[in-house]
Write a structure and sequence with these properties.
Number of domains of chain B: 1
Shape of chain B: elongated
Distance between the termini of chain A: 88 Å
Helix content of chain A: 10-25%
Number of strands of chain A: 9
Structural class of chain B: mainly beta
Structural class of chain A: mainly beta
Strand order of the largest sheet of chain A: 1-3-8-5-6
CATH class of chain B: Mainly Beta
Strand content of chain B: 35-45%
Largest sheet of chain B: 6 strands, antiparallel
Distance between the termini of chain B: 79 Å
Order of helices and strands of chain A: HEEEEEEEEE
Oligomer: heterodimer
Strand content of chain A: 25-35%
Radius of gyration of chain A: 36 Å
């Protein structure tokens, strides 16, 4: 056999082997089964109110004993996870014992912020000196009576009544007394 | 890596774990009502006596009298009503001193305290004792406190004092002709008290 014939024969054998191998691959059956669309997603915690984002419940000047400002706000929970909600104020409120704040929980279906429409009170979590109002989540007032959990689309209306306490101490009010600017926050944390 | 670097890395790792623990413990969301505030109005009343007494009778004889004028000015922002009252001490002379208080104004430039030069009484006869008179009785009967105080200028028509308003009061005491007054003394404080309406 010449050298060329030997190489040709080798190639032929390799080619045959390749064909056999290919046939081998096609002769095997295969089957798979799958469990698709597995996913992992977090739940959500989301809360909002009807004040338009920046409006105050009260902003009044020149108030005297017996005067009061009454405003209502509706807080809505839209998260998917059950949450606890606390209400607290920003720190640094001034005015000593001059101002009294009453906060009531209730229901309300009519009236737009800060109006109270048909507000119907159900409980009163706070009625005392404005300066003693809690200023942290930990000390905050329960959003619902008994610290009940909030679930999706729960709505609670709150009525705020701020009034000026009587004080006939001579010369005690020759200068204006102010609460200072302060915020109220409803904070939701999933339970 | 030096020992310090290793410690730093460990500390950062720990901090991350702690921060992570807080972050993962709960989801949190807030909503707020911002910039709430309330401010009170004011009630402020002052006079021009600079702390000095305006009336004095000593070793007085029946018929002795002293007159003084005082200007009372309101500077509060809230409308107020004013009542006159005052406390008495001494040994009982107040029963024998007649007191007459007349409200008015100075028709010209205000004289020095406690002069009544240019004093002009209000035209209204408030209590039936003459133009501008708001009290006419004994010093003893003059009310001692706010609750019983004489409403300015009269109970049926209290005046709402507003900021910048002032009135002049002419206060006159006269010793009655009564032997029982002998050897007695009295000291009186006159108070104008404003309370918002």
């Amino acid at each position: 056999m010449t050298r060329i014939r030997k190489v040709s024969l080798t190639l032929l054998i390799v080619g045959l082997l390749a064909i056999v191998a290919a046939v081998g691959a096609f002769s095997s059956f295969s089957q798979t089964t799958s469990n698709t669309s597995n996913s992992f997603a977090t739940g959500s915690v989301s809360i909002g109110d009807n004040d338009g984002g920046s409006a105050a419940l009260y902003a009044a000047a020149g108030q005297k004993p017996g005067d009061s400002v009454v405003s209502c706000i509706r807080v809505t929970y839209t998260g998917s996870l059950a949450s606890g909600v606390k209400l607290y104020a920003s720190s640094g409120i001034t005015g000593g014992t001059t101002f009294n704040l009453k906060v009531e929980r209730g229901t309300q279906t009519t009236g737009s912020f800060p109006g109270c429409g048909d507000f119907t009170p159900t409980s009163t979590p706070y009625d005392g000196a404005l300066t003693a109002f809690p200023t942290s989540y930990a000390a905050g007032l329960d959003g619902k009576a008994g610290a009940a959990a909030w679930t999706t689309n729960d709505v609670v209306a709150y009525r705020f009544t701020i009034s000026v306490n009587d004080d006939s101490t001579a010369g005690a009010h020759t200068a204006a007394v102010s609460t200072g600017s302060h915020d109220f926050t409803w904070e939701a944390r999933n339970s | 890596m030096s020992r310090r670097s290793v410690l730093t890395v460990v500390a950062i790792a720990l901090a991350c774990v702690l921060a992570g623990a807080q972050t993962w413990a709960a989801y949190d969301a807030t909503t707020a009502s911002r910039a709430n505030s309330v401010t009170t109005g004011t009630v402020a009343l002052a006079d021009n006596d600079s702390g000095n007494a305006m009336l004095s009778l000593s070793s007085a004889l029946p018929g002795a009298t002293d007159t003084a004028c005082i200007t009372v000015t309101y500077t509060g922002s809230l409308a107020s009503t004013v009542r006159l009252h005052g406390t008495t001490t001494g040994s009982g002379l107040d029963a024998y001193l007649d007191l007459k208080i007349t409200r008015g104004s100075f028709s010209g430039a205000p004289p020095a305290f406690d002069s009544c030069a240019t004093f002009s009484p209000d035209a209204t006869d408030y209590v039936g004792s003459g133009s501008g008179v708001v009290y006419n009785g004994t010093l003893q009967a003059f009310p001692d406190d706010y609750a019983a105080g004489r409403v300015d200028p009269l109970p049926a028509g209290p005046e709402a004092w507003t900021s910048g308003e002032s009135h002049v009061y002419k206060v006159q005491v006269t010793l009655r002709n009564n032997a029982s007054a002998a050897g007695k003394a009295a000291t009186q404080t006159f108070t104008w008290e404003a309370r918002n309406t």
